[in-house]
Known about the structure:
The protein is α/β, with parallel strands linked by helices. Helices cover 32% and strands 20% of the residues. It has helices spanning 8-17, 23-33, 48-53, 116-119, 128-142, 161-175, 192-197, 214-220, 229-243, 261-271, 296-308; strands spanning 63-69, 75-80, 86-93, 98-101, 105-107, 122-125, 148-151, 182-186, 204-208, 247-253, 276-282, 313-315, 332-335, 341-344. The strands form three sheets. Strands 1-2-3-4-7-8-9-10-11-12 form a ten-stranded mixed beta sheet, with helices on one face. Helix 1 (8-17) packs across helix 2 (23-33), helix 5 crosses helix 6 and helix 10 runs parallel beside helix 11 (296-308). 47% of the residues are buried.
Amino acid sequence: MTLLAKSLEELTDWVKDQGQPAYRGKQLHQWLYEKGVHSLADISVFPQEWRSKLADYPIGRSLIHYRSVAPDRTRKYLLKLADGLIIEAVGIPSEKRLTVCVSSQVGCPMACDFCATGKGGFTRNLKAHEIVDQVLTVQEDFQQRVSHVVFMGMGEPLLNIPEVVTAIHSLNKDVGIGQRCLTISTVGLPHKIKQLAEHNLQITFAVSLHASNQQVRAKLIPSADHYPLSNLIQDCQEYVQITGRRVTFEYILLAGVNDLPEHAGELAKLVKGFQSHVNLIPYNPIQEVDYQRPDEKRIKAFKTILEQEKVAVTVRYSRGLAANAACSCIYFFAEIPDNRPLTRLLVSLLG
């Protein structure tokens, strides 16, 4: 059993199974989540003999394979997991926050047309401890408590709901981050939105919409062929009914593709009438595809149309570009020292 992402109760049961008194469970919990220990051998309050026996017991921490820092202090991390696979996390500091963008899968099976991660394929789901570890790694490196976490890195969180939900409960109860400071971003999958809603989480829920009609969405997101836009919107409305919380819609603006006035009008009709908010995200070009970023005049005009239709809307811009750590709700390929192309993470919805 890997110890990270386990609750105080579970850790207490584990130490008792090891023949130790129950109070060592609280000690273990503190050293895992507050001190960020990487080896049980380093827990100085444990008896030396027991520590020696536990030296190789898996906690669930990763190794920093590569780290880069942007002038705005955004930091990108490539983390090596126990099986040697590499994932990414990004730490985004601001005046009052430290936000971590975490991955939920190694790679991504969704194959969105504008996304380089999808072009690299899918390897496996992450375990809850591998998600929690990303947050602790960033917290430790910044020497600052993490205030917000966004599931907007590698992968589709709704394809890994059990582990994602377990990670959310651990981040909330063990790491001490309020659920309302946690965001799950999804491209949308049939039946999965309701499944997530039934967990009664107090998180922020974001849907990568990126299109105002079925034709454009199917071009950008292959899975949309099996999940019509009308059904997606109905599921979002049901999410609001079940949870009482609004849905945020992420909308990448692609020049000449989905940024025309008629698209803004269609989008307004889709999202009006229930609790929602639109994040407009100007596209950052990648080499793999030919999409372009609209100019500021086009972006402003799109936003104005939504505002005239009484739609809550914000334009989000990326941070960390100089460190290859940012994009607008998509992934870019970034060259690292060994010249292997690895994806870099989105950092939208950070304000």
